[in-house]
Input
Amino acid sequence: MDSRTKRQLSSEQLAALARDALGAGVATAEEMSDGFANAVWRLGLDDGRAVVLKVSPPPELEQLTYERDLLRTEAMVYRLAASTGLPLPELLHHSFDDPLIGGDYLILSALDGTPWNHASLPEADDKAMRFELGRLLARLHTISGDGRFGYPQGGLNGPTWRDAFLLMTGAVLDDAIRYGIPLPVTQVEIAKLVHANAEALDEVTRPALVHFDMWPGNVFLTLTGGTPAIQALIDHERAFWGDPLADFVTPTIFGDLFPDDPLLLGYRAGGGEIVLDDQARVRDALYRTYLYLILLVENGPRRYPEEAYGRIRDLASRHLIRSCDFLSH
Output
């Protein structure tokens, strides 16, 4: 989707980055449009390799408070996950505050699979992929932090999950005021509901690595050979240290997590532990509230085209009301 946060680079700049990072020239360059924030190109190098270049937004551009040094978080995830066997692209190079562009960038190995949101799978295969994604999330969540909860970069973190999540939610509510974003529920009412239900967050005592953006567009599938398989999980830039349950919100966005969801069954088969009791339902509603707030408020700095964004705004507004209704009872 078009966004003000997507930096434009000339062919000369792309070539200079590739030469500096990988010692190769650029034979072909195609900008990829699926993302919402970072600019992404698929580059064909003159040595035969295909790579993906991700470039951070211009440093002078304002973003949401939590969107600090996102590519540095993504690089951290690749480093931490290297020994887990998770299917990920290979991080070939990264540079922060790079003088060639005045910002951060990553270069990753290119994938030849198909994003799940572009695949049309029979119901049985779709369920099998959800089961496998659950198994992979269980593996991701074995990665633990150093005791702090919240975002790795910036100040939105704390010694407990309750402390961190209240800071995270407060920051996006402050951003709504800063950008003048109309919400279907007032900032004051949302803050009251989050604080009133925050005790449920105290059940989370281990800071697990949470992706928090595991929608089908960030899951690449291999569709050759008869049986589909997950080739790679991508876009780890919005990861934080927190509750594994939060990673079930995006795969069930604008819906609910049911006990018989193959995603949850696969998670348990992979060794993950999720109990959908009353407290878990409260935490789920808190995380959905947070996600729907982000979807509404991020249009402030990004200024999406109305024809592309209108449906997302309507869905996020409707489901934010639903989550707040749940928290109010």
The CA atoms of residues 212 and 247 lie 5 Å apart. The mean pLDDT is 94.
